[in-house]
Design a protein that fits this description.
Blueprint lengths: L45 H12 L19 H10 L11 H17 L9 E5 L2 H19 L10 E5 L4 H9 L3 E5 L10 H6 L5 E7 L11 H15 L5 E4 L7 H4 L12 E7 L11 E5 L11 E5 L2 E5 L9 H38 L3 E3 L8 E6 L8 H9 L7 E3 L8 E6 L6 H19 L18
Parallel strand pairs: 2-3, 2-4, 4-5, 5-6
Antiparallel strand pairs: 1-7, 6-7, 8-9, 10-11, 11-13, 12-13
Helix pairs in contact: 2-9, 3-9, 4-5, 9-11, 10-11
């Protein structure tokens, strides 16, 4: 979550209370205007509190029209009921809620099977609050394994982690928090993610692992995990260095198994030690739930697993936090049970069809150049064509927002800071009809944008709230 500051002005603002918000007598029951940045002195009725909060939330964007987020914005009502029934269950209290714990265990087993663990019964894994926590846990395991192998050199030697510059910000946080050097493979030309050969050239005896991303957030493309593993196999043959791979499958690990079954990226590759995914992205569950799996117990050092005697039960736990609701884990099991392989395949194929179809229609407008086409993740990125000088992608993003569409515009990282793009994430619930409406709105804006004398964006760094 972002850090928040208190009010910057000394004057205190108060909320305005409509007399009709009172439960019975609009005058006699009218509540005192409560302050916004300190606790009010007196309670107010539930109805009044509810309406005040709801009024402010009307100013949020419509989540269904948010094409910046990968996070699930629609679930079936039955899933919502289950989540409401389980929101008071603390996921950590496995002794008190044994069936919730069992559903978590089943989800791990299903994912181990889906990702071709050599022995699904031997794979170990856990639920998390999302992929960010799952990546932190995977990174901790990589570092601890390296530390054990290099006990005679550590802490004198500084560990490093190799990854593409396109990684999600959680990996930068991991390296910062756990004092690991981040070695980033820059983008180059029309290559917008990690290159296997460039990655192995950054590896040495202090490399704890290499991260491969199955679905870059910048453009939706898969990184070549199999080629990366092959390049590291060659490094081991040449130098003896055995460097594991972690696959950040925050989105792609719940897309590729259903739509790209011949793509080898998972535990079928012996060098892949761990995989994470976001249940709340293409796992089709409301936030926040993620999953981290290791191919076997050897890949997860036992000393990282805490065995806690808590509320009468002895349980192993591997997490950065402790208490969290069981609702999202229950919703994940519901979705696995509800859809099965064929259902997931149908949902993800529908999302990919929307993405590829919309990408083609936008390309046909003539003003834009596609970087990706939505044929890996149901995500595509595009920029203005070389001959377009009257406006830029930030102008397009700003104008689409006037119609309620949240389409992020942003600049690429190192070596391609010159490239600014728009990106569209197609999720379950973003239908072909909505895609057609968005395309029509974009087409309707083009005549006005073409008449501009120049792009209106003064500061690209603050032109969008999207920064990863």
């Amino acid at each position: 979550m972002p850090l928040n500051e208190g009010p910057r002005q000394s004057g205190e603002r108060r909320l305005s209370v409509n007399p009709f918000y009172g439960p019975a007598n609009p005058v006699g029951d009218m509540a005192e205007a409560p302050p916004t940045h300190r606790l009010p002195d007196q309670p107010i009725t539930p109805a009044t509190a509810h309406q005040l909060v709801r009024d402010e939330l009307m100013l949020d964007g419509n989540a269904r029209l948010n094409l910046a987020t990968f996070v699930t914005t629609w679930m079936e009502p039955e899933a919502g009921v289950l989540m409401a029934e389980c929101r008071d269950k603390n996921m950590i209290d496995k002794d008190e809620y044994p069936r919730t714990a069992e559903l978590e265990r089943r989800c791990v087993a299903m994912l181990a099977d889906l990702w071709h663990a050599p022995d699904p019964a031997a794979a170990v894994g856990c639920s998390t609050t999302g992929s960010s926590e799952a990546c932190m846990l995977a990174g901790m395991a990589l570092k601890r394994r390296w530390t054990r192998r290099n006990a005679d050199r550590y802490p004198g030697a500084r560990p490093n982690l190799v990854m593409g510059v396109n990684v999600q910000v959680c990996w930068e946080k991991f390296c910062n928090f756990w004092e690991v050097e981040a070695r980033l493979v820059p983008m180059e030309g029309e290559r917008f993610h990690l290159d296997p050969q460039a990655a192995v050239e950054l590896c040495d005896e202090n490399t704890i692992g290499v991260v491969g991303i199955l679905g870059s957030t910048f453009d939706g493309s898969y990184e070549p995990v199999a080629e990366l593993c092959a390049a590291l196999d060659a490094v081991q043959e040449r130098t003896g260095l055995d460097i594991p791979v972690h696959v950040d499958g925050a989105s792609g690990a719940m897309v590729a198994p259903f739509l790209d079954e011949d793509l080898v990226w998972d535990f079928r590759l012996p060098r892949v030690a761990s995989i994470n995914t976001s249940g709340h992205k293409y796992g089709l569950v409301y936030p926040g739930v993620g999953w981290a799996l290791w191919r076997d117990a050897e890949a997860l050092p036992e000393e990282l697993v805490f065995r806690v005697n808590y509320l009468g039960g002895d349980m192993p736990t591997f997490a950065l936090n402790f208490s969290r609701p069981g609702a999202q884990v229950v919703a994940q099991y519901y979705t696995f049970l509800r859809l099965g392989r064929d259902g997931y395949r149908a949902v993800q194929q529908a999302a990919r069809d929307v993405a590829t179809g919309m990408a083609g229609r936008i390309e046909a407008l003539g003003d834009f150049r596609l970087l990706t086409r939505g044929d890996e993740l149901p995500v595509f990125a595009f920029t203005t064509a070389p001959d377009v000088t009257a406006y830029d992608v930030f102008d397009v993003s700003r104008r689409l927002r006037e119609s309620g569409w949240l389409v992020p515009a942003y600049t690429f990282p190192a070596n391609r800071e010159d490239l600014s793009v728009l990106r569209v994430v197609c999720r379950n619930g973003f239908s072909a009809d909505l895609a057609e409406l968005l395309t029509q709105d974009l087409e309707r804006l083009l005549p006005e944008l073409r008449r501009q004398q120049r792009p209106l964006t003064q500061d690209k760094g603050v032109a969008t709230g999207f920064h990863h």
